Amino acid sequence: MDSHTITIKPRSNPLAIDFAELWRYRELFFIFAWRDIKVRYKQTFLGAAWAIFQPLISTFIFTVFFGRLAKIPSGVLPYSLFVLCGLVFWNFFSGAVTHASNSLIENENIVKKVYFPRLVLPLSSLITNFIDFGISLVMMLIFSFVLGFIPSLMFIPILILGILIASIGAGGLGLFLSAFNVKYRDVRYILPFFIQTMLFLTPVIYPTSIVSNTNKYIMAINPMTGVIEAIRVTVAGTGNIDWLLLGLSALSAIIFFIIGLIYFRQTEAFFADIV
User: Fold this and answer.
1) In this structure, are residues 169 and 250 in contact, taking their beta carbons and an 8 Å threshold?
2) Alpha-carbon 154 to chain mean position
3) How many DSSP H helices and E strands does the chain contain?
């Protein structure tokens, strides 16, 4: 009788992603995503309409206090549309980070009992936010048309690039914070404050033109800085995209993802023991 020896050893490369294994668990990926979507909208009064009301209410508040009272410049765009362009992408990014960060804790019973690639949980949680993002994006475009602003031909490629940058950046932060949250439960309490602080460090309510060039490129450490600024240029239909700013934001998103993946891989083996 032939004898077989199975050797179990840790991955030598923390950046290695077993795509074959992830593909085998693709159905689980979509099950988690669909479950999150149903839970999010089940027994809610507004349902998916909240994706419209939330940015609209925030836009109204910011327009009154920062546009009319503080007189923050918004270039050729009306301040309401200026803020809305930023909020649509910021809400997607912040929501994705928040849901990914809590994904392991919210599914601790499954993590303890069943084996599956743990990457599935934080990454599948990103899908839920695409629903809200799509609804908010359509609403933003309608609002833009009503105000007489037709996005330029660069809108579609910048939109796709912006979604990629936001997803990669949010995925990286989500991986890091979800793994960190398993060991230190303070994350769920600190995260809302962190997200709120980051809103004011992101050019959502103000343009980067009011800060110095040095500070502007330091702000590009935030992946959403270049994305929001580029989207505004394409919606306005005039001006030039700051490709250096957008490139730095893309690089920052990739670095976030690499750091998050490394930390997630290094702590993954202990999830079931300490979750």
Assistant:
1) no
2) 22
3) 12, 0
pLDDT at position 14: 56
Q: Count structural domains, the chain.
A: 1
Nearest to 271 by CA among 56, 129, 114: 114
- Check: CB of residue 64 under 8 Å from CB of residue 162: no
What single-letter DSSP state applies at residue 12? Answer: S
**Structural domain span for residue 40:** 19-274
> Is residue 253 one of the residues assigned to a domain?
yes
Look up the pTM and report it. 0.86
The answer to whether the CB of 149 falls within 8 A of the CB of 77 is yes
SS3 88: helix
The C-alpha atoms of residue 224 and residue 249 are separated, in whole angstroms, by 7
Q: How many residues does the chain have?
A: 275
| Residue 176 · residue 259 · CB < 8 Å | yes
- Domain assignment of residue 2, yes or no: no
What phi and psi, each to the nearest 5 degrees, are found at residue 6? -105, 120
> Considering the domain boundaries, does residue 14 fall inside one?
no
In tens, the pLDDT along 24-72 reads 777 877 888 887 777 776 656 566 677 778 888 888 999 998 888 888 9
